[in-house]
Write a structure and sequence with these properties.
The complex is a heterodimer of chains A (472) and B (95). Chain A is built from 16 helices and eleven strands. Chain A is α/β, with parallel strands linked by helices. Chain A has a domain at 3-229: Amidase signature (AS) enzymes, CATH 3.90.1300.10. In chain B, strands 1-2 form a two-stranded antiparallel ribbon. The chains are: A alpha/beta (472), B mainly alpha (95).
Chain lengths: 472, 95
């Protein structure tokens, strides 16, 4: 079985044609995990026995002729998405032994499809970071060069798909956490429109930014997984129906925010980006320059809004209802000792920054101002989408860095320049690998980001498939 | 805008977060740098309208959504300490 060449459509065909069973497919992935994951550390836990049981159930369903698209398809799940009865830790000591009390809606949907869950993947603790180095359980390595980071926060999911340790994976994206690791590991990742996929059962990081999305080897695979998990959910009040946003006929026009690319982008990343634009021109797309003046403030807005919401959401981890609890003489002591012991350094930093920007006397200058500028960014993007189908940028301005190389938080934050505006505006974006760049004898991947209007995932997948075809 | 003085120890207290003295001295350097990084939004001037969220809260009838107590057992199973269907916590009020 050639896992590297396997697509979801091909797996479906072969499973239904009985060329291989779901159990054989699951075992092929479990074997690959055994061989490769000691080094990569994409998984925090592999559910071998449960996965085999799910695969057997899928085989019975296939034999009855009742297979759905994902029946028997092996999927990896980011460690912040709940599956009833299984540990979900958000890669934190705080939840090291926490077992989920219920299924996330995306999991419920995939269980109904008969999917197989291989394991939970490594991430930056509570989805805060951009390299998976903030995991409390050690970093994941980039399969393309194991001395480098896989990106983050969904770095385990990206590495699992890239190294054939899963056919697909679920990730979550708060400021680039699906797209940037997809770019670094050479796979496809889709950050979905805010509200398009239910977040019931996703551990909240920054609630106005968080979104679950699919990761896979191709645009087609990612598109199929998106269709399986999307939809309004009565358990998530921010989720919306598919019909909320009007369909947008494809105009074949791409906008490029040139002024944003003027500095700070690796020359080889920029060259790959230009090459992908040329491909689109050859395919009949018009590529035009656009202006998004407020985007220069996107990082500042993001690094106010994100910590503010994180400090609020993470207040729930207090040692009382679930997770770690450190004994103390009084309840205040239990709170502060538990939180001091359970949260890692980056989580603590965000909580403190968030506490500051929300504090009396500073909330107007920081948090409220950031919210106002955020609405400017959103409005400017909406204007641009009157003219273009998608905005194109590199996914990351730089190539994956060496493990341990970036210790300064501000230099890490700056690398999120192209991904954070998407979450601030609540729009969808797709990262597609478009070329490789050789560094120290290894071929690193460069991702191309396509940003669409609210609900424009279909168009993004259409355009993404054009760019992808040339690279593969 | 001038760089505000950041009392990290006070913030940690507000956030109910134990921070060691070594970490405190590191954070006292890092947090002003992070705040300097986000300072640029202060330069945005003019007509900035407050954000009005497009996605609105979803209301339901204020009636019992399910039979009382059916989720108690499973949710309490995750708690560090519980007794007779209740969470156990340390003393809150002191004399």
């Amino acid at each position: 079985m050639n896992l590297a060449a396997l697509s979801v459509a091909e797996a479906r065909r072969a499973l239904d044609a009985k060329e291989f069973s779901a159990l054989e497919l699951t075992n092929a992935y479990l074997d690959t995990i055994k061989v490769k994951d000691t080094e990569l550390h994409a998984y925090l836990e592999v559910w071998a026995e449960q996965a085999r049981a799910e695969a057997r159930a899928a085989d019975e369903r296939i034999a009855r002729g009742e297979a759905s698209m994902f029946t028997g398809v092996p999927i990896a799940v980011k460690d912040n998405i709940l599956i009833e009865g299984r540990i979900a830790s958000s890669a934190s000591k705080m939840l090291e032994n926490y077992r989920a009390s219920y299924d996330a809606t995306v999991i419920k949907k995939l269980k109904e499809e008969g999917a197989v869950f291989l394991g939970r993947t490594n991430m930056d603790e509570f989805a805060l970071g951009g390299s998976t180095e903030n995991s409390a359980f050690g970093p994941t390595k980039n399969p393309l060069d194991t001395t480098r980071v896989p990106g983050g926060t969904s770095g385990g999911s990206a590495a699992a798909v890239a190294a054939d340790l899963a056919l697909l994976a679920l990730g979550s994206d708060t400021g680039g956490s699906i797209r940037q690791p997809a770019s670094f590991c050479g796979i496809v990742g889709l950050k979905t429109t805010y509200g398009s996929v239910s977040r019931f059962g996703l551990m909240a990081a920054a609630s106005s930014l968080d979104q679950i999305g699919p990761m896979g080897k191709s645009v087609a695979d990612v598109h199929m997984l998106f269709k399986a998990i999307r939809g309004r959910d009565e358990h998530d009040g921010t989720s919306v129906s598919e019909s909320l946003y009007p369909a947008r006929p494809l105009k074949k026009v791409i906008g490029v925010p040139r002024s944003l690319l003027a500095k700070g982008v690796d020359p080889e990343v920029l060259a790959s980006f230009e090459q992908a634009l040329e491909t689109l021109r050859e395919e009949g797309y018009e590529v035009r320059d656009i202006e998004l003046p407020s985007l220069q403030h996107a990082l500042a807005v993001y690094y106010i809004v994100n910590p503010a919401e994180v400090s609020t959401n993470l207040a729930r981890y207090d040692g009382i209802r679930y997770g770690l609890s450190v004994p103390a003489d009084d309840i205040g002591g239990v709170y502060s000792k538990t939180r001091g012991a359970g949260f890692g350094p980056e989580v603590r930093r965000r909580i403190l920054v968030g506490t500051f920007v929300l504090s009396s006397g500073y909330a107007d200058a920081y948090y409220r101002k950031a919210r106002a500028v955020r609405s400017l960014i959103r409005a400017e993007m909406a204007d641009v989408f009157q003219e273009v189908d998608a905005i194109a940028t590199p996914t990351s301005p730089i190539l994956p860095w060496k493990l341990g190389e970036k210790a300064d938080p501000v230099s890490l934050y700056a690398a999120d320049i192209f991904t954070v505006p998407v979450n601030l505006a609540g729009v969808p974006a797709l990262s597609v690998p478009v070329s490789t760049v050789a560094r120290e004898g290894k071929n690193l991947s460069v991702g191309f980001q396509l940003i669409g209007a609210h609900g424009a995932e279909e168009n993004l997948c259409t355009i993404g498939a054009v760019v992808e075809k040339v690279h593969s | 805008m001038t760089e505000p003085h950041i009392d990290v120890a006070a913030l940690a207290k507000l956030a109910r977060l134990d921070v060691s003295p070594e970490e405190l001295s590191r954070l006292e350097k890092e947090i002003p740098k992070i705040l300097a990084f986000v300072e640029t939004i202060q330069t945005v001037s003019g007509e900035v309208t407050p954000e009005i969220p497009e996605v609105r809260n979803v209301m339901r009838e204020d009636v019992d959504p399910h039979e009382s107590g059916i989720h108690t057992e499973v949710l309490l199973a995750a708690a560090p300490a519980s007794e007779d269907g209740h969470l156990v916590v340390k003393k809150v009020l002191h004399k």
